[in-house]
Design a protein that fits this description.
Number of helices: 6
Shape: globular
Largest sheet: 4 strands, antiparallel
Structural class: alpha+beta
Radius of gyration: 16 Å
Strand order of the largest sheet: 1-2-4-3
Strand content: 15-25%
């Protein structure tokens, strides 16, 4: 069981905007997210962090539900122009580092973790998936929430979190599952 006092003490050191501890059984996966991935995302079929490499929707749901709990959290970034995709994506690294810190804390508390985070993995310039080879960094690669069929705004609404702060502000979301 997560010691919430220790977690509160840990989390207070980081720029996490909001977080909730979830029961993993409540997390639903949606086919519609996969449809959007397939039809609209240029990364579909090109990386170990995206469908179809992450498995079927049923396999993704089974993996999520094999964990007891999850910490779903957000961090804030500000940009000069939300339409500038390059600038927006440049703020993602800080959130990814924060995500790794949360997972490492949980591992240090004796938990096994699995992390779903933002966008698609970009650790390698050329993903080994394209060559039919295993992921070079499976311990560092975090599939995105959407690749697993998780709709972030459903969790946000269910747990009364902020999804849009307005202006030129971005909220990044991650989910670290643990057991």
């Amino acid at each position: 069981m997560l010691d919430t006092n220790r977690f509160e003490e840990f989390i207070s050191q980081y720029p996490i905007y909001e977080y909730r501890v979830l029961d993993a059984a409540e997390i639903q996966v949606r086919e519609r997210v996969r449809t959007i991935c397939k039809q609209e995302c240029e990364r579909y079929g090109t990386t170990w962090a995206c469908p179809p490499a992450v498995g079927t929707l049923e396999e993704c749901a089974a993996r999520i539900h094999s964990y007891k709990s999850g910490i779903f959290f957000s961090s804030v970034a500000e940009v000069s122009d939300l339409m500038n995709m390059e600038e927006m994506l440049s703020t993602r690294d800080a959130h990814e580092q924060l995500t790794c810190e949360v997972a490492e804390f949980l591992k240090g508390e004796g938990f096994e973790t699995f992390t779903l985070s933002t966008e698609s993995c970009d650790l390698c310039e050329h993903c080994a998936y394209l060559d039919g080879k295993p992921c070079r960094f499976p311990e560092k690669m975090h599939p995105c929430l959407e690749s697993y069929g998780v709709v972030a705004n459903e969790l946000v609404e269910k747990h009364s979190m902020e999804y849009n702060l307005g202006g030129n502000t971005i909220l990044w979301f991650s989910l670290v599952l643990f057991r």
